[in-house]
Amino acid sequence: FGNTCYCNSVLQALYFCRPFRDKVLAYKVQPRKKESLLTCLSDLFNSIATQKKKVGVIPPKKFISRLRKENELFDNYMQQDAHEFLNYLLNTIADLLQEEKKQEKQNGKLQNGSIESEEGDKPDLTWVHEIFQGTLTNETRCLNCEAVR
């Protein structure tokens, strides 16, 4: 597949992040959606979870192929930065989930015939946000008196 260790390391870390893995596996059982990076990731995680052997190899061919189709940065056989890939993957999944939520709301409004008031243009938070979003805080501490600014 080329130099995909940046991808493999991120996929392994995400698979062993239980809340993330559980949500991705739960996504697999939803009605089939068009192929996306999330559906490919869900298929890959499902293959790993249902593997009968304790050790082995599961090539992420479909996932890598989809990644290369969706982002030209990864459409080569060169090594990439794992943190760039992690950011791209999490942002892409969050965007997909937000778009699905938006579509569901629009479909629900059309079916009910009533239009609810919009909550501004603020995007809905997804399970990706719930798991990984945080607050970065910087503080400066004096080495002499230890006062914090």
UniProtKB/TrEMBL annotation:
Domain USP: 1-149
GO biological process: protein deubiquitination
Keyword Hydrolase in record: yes
Gene Ontology molecular function: cysteine-type deubiquitinase activity
Protein's name in the database: UBP12 hydrolase
Organism: Galbula dea
PROSITE patterns: USP_3
Keywords: Hydrolase
InterPro entries in alphabetical order: Papain-like_cys_pep_sf, Peptidase_C19, Peptidase_C19_UCH, USP
GO cellular component annotations of the record: cytosol; nucleus
